[in-house]
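Dear Dr. H.,

I hope your travels went smoothly. While you were away I took the liberty of generating a structure for the chain from your last submission, since the lab meeting agenda had it listed for discussion. I wanted you to have the full record in hand beforehand rather than looking at slides cold. The sequence, exactly as received, is reproduced here:
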Amino acid sequence: MPVDFAENDSSTNRAMTAAVTVGDLTSTARGSGARKSANKPQWCQFPFWTVVPLVNLFRDVFVPSDNDGVRYMAHVLLDDMALWQRGNDQSLDWVAAKVLAILSHLEGQERANLRGLLPVIRVLEFGAKKYAVGNWTRGMAWSVVFTSAMSHLTKVQAGETVDDESGESHFAHFACNVFFLLAYRDIFPEGDDRLPGFRPGGVPKTNVEVS
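The corresponding predicted structure, in token form, is as follows:
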């Protein structure tokens, strides 16, 4: 059923505005995209590339033995997301391609095609009703989006399937955040706040000598 985008009553709007911890739900300014992020683990602070070798080394421990393809792919995608976290922008394109293939499979498609995006569309509809239509397009810090993506991906890896709030899959929420980050390269590049110290070699050296 299509989402009713009609505005909620004023009490609901006030409650949502109070719950927003990132951005400004009442603003249409650039960079004011709103999110509820209180009490959520700040995954953007963790260097994910440090655990990828552990996952590969102890694959029997980390990768489920029940042939759960989605959970297996969560481990594969972790590697690509860790590369992106370190500044490899192309790795996000790889993630998007894999995500579309997985979503298409989950939608019963033999090959990757745009019908695989239907769960992502439902997540977007949920977000439009929860916040506002186009809220995410105003832009927000990339770390907020990455944190949300990794929150859902880690839940997939742990065997959780459905997001309690939206009723959609955690994988669809992960995918939605990935496509946000892809779009932000064009529409909100100033939001790139990946930690400089995460890039290969760490924080760039300067020519200034410390006395």
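Two observations you may find useful: The first helix runs from residue 10 to 19. Residues 47-191 form one domain.

With kind regards,
E. W.
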